[in-house]
Amino acid sequence: MSTENIVIIGASFAGLGAAHYALKHVVPQLPKKGGKNYTVTLINPSKDFYWRIAGPRAAVSKTLMPESKYIFPIAPGFKSYPKGSFNFVQGTATHIDSAARTVSVTTAAGEHTQIPYAALVLATGISTPSPLFTQTTDAAGLSATYDSFQKVLPTAKTIIIGGAGPVGVEVGGEIAEFLNGKPGWFQSKPKNQKAKVIIVSAEKKMLPILRESISKKAEKFLKRIGGEVIYNTKVVAATQEGRDIFGPTKVVLSNGKTLNADIYIDATGGRPQTSFIPAAWLDQRNKINCNTKTLRVDVAGPRVYVVGDAGSYTRGGVIDMANAIPVALTNLKIDLTSQITGRAPTQERHYTADNSESQILPIGPSKGVGAFGGWSLPSFMIKMIKGKDYMSKQMALPTVEGKQWAKEGKWKPQPVAAFTEKVGFSSG
User: Fold this and answer.
1) Does pLDDT of 398 surpass 50?
2) Residues 245-252: what's their mean pLDDT?
3) Start and end of every FAD/NAD(P)-binding domain (predicted)?
4) Mean pLDDT of 182-188
5) Domain 155-266 class?
6) Strands 359-363, 263-266: parallel, antiparallel or unpaired by DSSP?
7) Strands 196-200 and 227-230, how do they pair?
8) Is 60 exposed, middle or buried (0-12, 13-18, 19+ CB in 10 A)?
């Protein structure tokens, strides 16, 4: 029997979820027809999964957040599946040929290879402008970055953070409490402040998806540990004065002021990792342009899908993947089944975004703010849920092992209006 690949590019939250879902609910249910076996092939530059959620604390201290809590080997998470059903390729995808239906990969050993695909899932995610929150190559590279940062952090007196989204606020809180200590009871500022942490917000409030009262609460907690916020201002230039990426930096603001920072951290948001994706597949934000209902990348030809932050359908975030991954992978199963049997389907699964106010953020190890499902949560609850270890103990290893995808889940079938045109029923 011949073997065909369901190729998944990227092994962060979306890629791991897609791989486990495919192995549990797609491959076992495909028709046994045509003399073909299907293997899930996962491509990723690192053999380890980076629990990015813990990045703000991991960057600050390996004592507070040891590597064992945010770096996890990928392969053991797939050992329970039948032999031959899963293949991991450590390498970097460099090109996609939609006509030949192949992915070009440069492996960790420097070899160049082409992997054919029967179906392709793009889960390439985002990179961050600061190296503190992205595993660009492997775990050793990320660890070395943290070593460099933690070497200079203890002596820094002024730390400027560009961006007031969740990463900027969380890392600001971690740094402020690490350097200035916990505030005393009823104190509005640190008792013995050693450093000043400045967060530059382009908007009139921090934390865009949360209400203003929660943003103000976050600012109050930041002030108690030596943080401050500059609103309605952007960082327009950040010029390092030496070769050290975490060294003294002149920071020019849109209000005309220039500030001197011992350390500057760019936390202005993630950039889609789509440089190797064909330009015709991308939107104006360099996100992968997809059908927002089916998560198919229609322009890419039959059986190509996107999940995760690189997709045009989502505002981003791990919570959203619980809705997106089952949709994309169910449609993949429907499309592959049709290609195997030669019969056009009559139904498909549709994605619905959850844009409720749901985000929780520690402000250092002691405090936190957030909401879930539109309900504001008290600080002690944030500390209990996320503040202890950024949910590493509860969720990191289960993510690698795919525990959240044990059940396929119920869904309401939607009619297929024009299958041949949309997903290439007649294509091989």
Assistant:
1) yes
2) 95
3) 5-310
4) 77
5) alpha beta
6) unpaired
7) parallel
8) buried
The closest of 370, 162, 386, 383 to 265, measured between CA atoms, is 162
Cα–Cα distance between 412 and 226 in angstroms, integer? 51
Integer angstrom CA distances of residue 391 from 187, 394, 395, 397: 28, 5, 6, 10
Please state whether 34 falls in left (phi above 0), alpha (psi between -120 and 50) or beta: left
d(CA 265, CA 255): 19
Condensed to tens digits (0 to 9), the pLDDT of residues 316-339 reads: 889 899 999 999 999 999 999 999
Q: What are the residues whose beta carbons fall under 8 Å from the beta carbon of 348, sequence distance 6 or more?
A: 294, 330, 331, 334, 413, 414, 415, 416
Which part of the chain has CATH 3.50.50.60? Answer: 2-128+271-354+406-423, 155-266
2 by Cβ neighbours in 10 Å (0-12 / 13-18 / 19+) ranks as exposed
CATH superfamily of 2-128+271-354+406-423: FAD/NAD(P)-binding domain (3.50.50.60)
Residue 164: closest CA among 225, 210, 224, 226: 210
55 neighbors 149 (Cβ within 8 angstroms): no
Q: Which amino acid is at 2?
A: S
